[in-house]
Design goal:
single chain, alpha+beta, Rossmann fold, 3 domains, 8-stranded mixed beta sheet, 23% helix, disordered N terminus, AB_hydrolase_fold, Mycobacterial_A85_antigen
């Protein structure tokens, strides 16, 4: 239940000249009972249209945030916020311009984990919302208030709001939802850890109990429900909205129409029958585990491959063998699709990796972690320039790599706990540090790269390097299974790692890799392989885009006894 409490009066009070303004934060008594450890954020935003907690981003329009860790909170104590913590986008609070802002205090709660590796760590726990710090059920915040900031006058806030629990979706005729305890993950984290999945079943599933189906694993970020499937026509009264990502009006109508069209295909008598799953595997670091075994996150690769997938196949009549499983996805899901194919080559029969996160760390976006000394700066004999982090299809840069990382440093501190992109990469790929948290690939403040950590990344998670190193062992098992798609103007420069990986794949012998690598001309993130249609359409068609290739793969590799009638193949 969401707490809607009477807002305490926000007052300002003077402080002595030369001192930082006093930021006094109180907590409504009924919200203090289970508060112990966490991170307190102080947020300022220039616009009243968006709450400050939802306005922290990589762009120049970002809200200002300063963070402070706390431990062993005592009821009734409140906080005097320390402004000397690192801030983003302005690092030093003294440089915040005078003006009118909307101010908000926010608490990210931490829990204690006694892991099986002997480390005790304090982290924010996913509450089945997908590890979104600004929406996590139970996290506390104040109602935004307008203030005049002059760098001298103090601010008094009262935290009196709490994020509500997640409403979990209900089963329908076609979509089922499961949640299962993972023994492997529970043993690692020292508490019960669950995996979930949304499952799309084929038509007449209940009527044809003798049918068994191939399994399509759609990897990606934490899904609240199975997306892109709608059994009723689009809402005729739906008003056009504007989608800033694609720069078009009416995208909400397009989404509904595409979802309904997919349903119409799904139930048509000549459409292939198969099962699609979307996995829920959030963790204390992110909305997604990256589906591999990791020193910091735990054995998610084994848990998904050997616990969750067999459980789903048994319950919903999957064929249950590697030749009948296919993986696909974009961005995070693209990396996962390729990673599980490489790390479990016999458990899957093909991957379709669209706009994958860096698959060659010589191009870790715009950084070569093996040769560059610093991730944030390109240094020459007479000058130094910032390394770029984000662009559009014209090459116009909107964020620097340093700023993207500094945002996470302000939000989550030095332990990789921001819940954001660079921190999850670090958590997945790095060894455990002496303090029990991920060992940084580079200093989050300065960008100086740790070559020892880089070498660990290389041996364990650089997918191109692992394929090249082990091709004599796994090449035959990967033949014909690897398909990679990326726009050549990917916003995060992910195409650079794809180029390097393609160079290796094209050089393979005994066997030749036998897949495909394609690029979208001037296509941004996340192009997924269709040269004819715009990405804002094809991103809604992941579950049907690769079916012809999958059909051909099944026709070539399925056992002779496989009943083709349960999965209609085009002749």
């Amino acid at each position: 239940m969401r707490y809607l409490l009477i807002l305490m009066v926000v007052a300002t009070f003077g402080c002595q000249t030369g001192q930082s303004p006093k930021i006094s934060i109180q907590i409504a008594p009924e919200l203090e009972t289970d508060l112990k450890d966490g991170r307190l954020l102080f947020l300022l935003h220039h616009s009243e249209n968006t709450e400050p907690r939802f306005a922290v981003n990589d762009e120049v329009t970002s809200a200002q945030v300063i963070g402070m860790d706390f431990e062993d909170y005592q009821e009734g104590r409140g906080f005097e916020f320390k402004l000397d913590g690192f801030g983003y986008p302005i690092a030093d609070w003294n440089d915040i311009p005078n003006g009118e802002y909307w101010v908000q205090a926010y608490i990210v709660k931490y829990e204690t984990f006694n892991r099986s590796d002997g480390h005790t760590v304090k982290m924010p726990m996913d509450q089945w919302e997908g590890r979104q710090w600004n929406r996590t059920p139970g996290n506390l915040f104040s109602t935004p208030q307008k203030i005049s900031w002059d760098g001298k006058t103090g601010v008094k806030l009262t935290i009196d709001q709490v994020n509500p629990p997640v409403n979990e979706p209900e089963d329908t005729e076609f979509i089922k939802h499961i949640k299962m305890k993972s023994e492997l993950l529970s043993a690692f984290w020292g508490r019960d850890i669950y995996l979930g999945a949304h499952i799309l079943l084929p038509r007449d599933f209940e009527k044809n109990s003798n049918e068994y189906y191939p399994l399509m694993i759609f990897h990606g970020h934490f899904p609240s429900d199975f997306g892109g499937f709608r059994t009723v026509p689009p809402d005729e009264n739906l008003e056009d909205d504007y989608n800033p990502r694609f720069g078009i009006y009416g995208y909400n109508k397009i989404q509904q129409q595409e979802a309904y069209d997919f349903y119409q295909k799904w139930i048509s008598p000549d459409f292939q029958k198969f099962i699609v799953i979307e996995i829920q595997h959030a963790n204390p670091f992110y909305d997604d585990s990256y589906a591999v075994n990791s020193e910091n996150i735990g054995p998610y690769g084994d848990a998904i491959t050997y616990e969750l997938i067999p459980y789903i196949e048994k319950q919903f009549r999957g064929i249950g063998e590697g030749w009948a499983r296919f993986t696909y996805g974009g961005s995070t899901g693209g990396w996962e699709a390729l990673a599980v194919q490489v790390k479990y080559p016999n458990e899957y029969n093909g991957c379709f990796a669209a706009c994958p996160d860096p698959i060659d760390f010589r191009a870790y976006t715009t950084v070569n972690i093996y040769e560059d000394k610093n991730a944030y700066y390109i240094k020459g004999p007479f000058r130094t320039t910032d390394r770029v982090g984000k662009r559009n299809y014209l090459g116009h840069v909107s964020a620097m790599l340093k700023d993207m990382n500094h945002k996470e440093l302000a939000l989550g501190g030095t332990k990789s706990l921001s819940g954001d992109q660079w921190d999850i990469w670090q958590a997945v790929y790095s060894p455990v540090g002496n303090d029990g948290y991920p060992k940084p690939i580079w200093d989050k403040l300065t960008g100086e790269i740790d070559q020892e950590v880089a070498n660990y990344w290389k041996e364990n998670f650089d997918l191109r390097y692992i394929m090249e190193r082990d091709w004599s062992k796994i090449g035959k098992e990967l033949e014909g299974k690897i398909h990679i798609y990326c726009g050549d103007m990917d916003n995060y420069y992910l195409n650079n790692a794809v180029y390097l990986t393609e160079d290796f794949l094209e050089s393979t012998k005994n066997p030749y890799y036998g897949g495909e690598v394609l690029y979208g001309d001037r296509a941004e993130h996340c192009w997924n392989g269709d040269p004819e249609l715009p990405n804002y359409i094809t991103r809604l068609r992941y579950n049907t885009m690769y079916l012809d290739k999958i059909a051909n793969r099944l026709k070539a590799t399925a056992p002779s006894g496989f009943d083709q009638k349960t999965w209609t193949l085009k002749k």
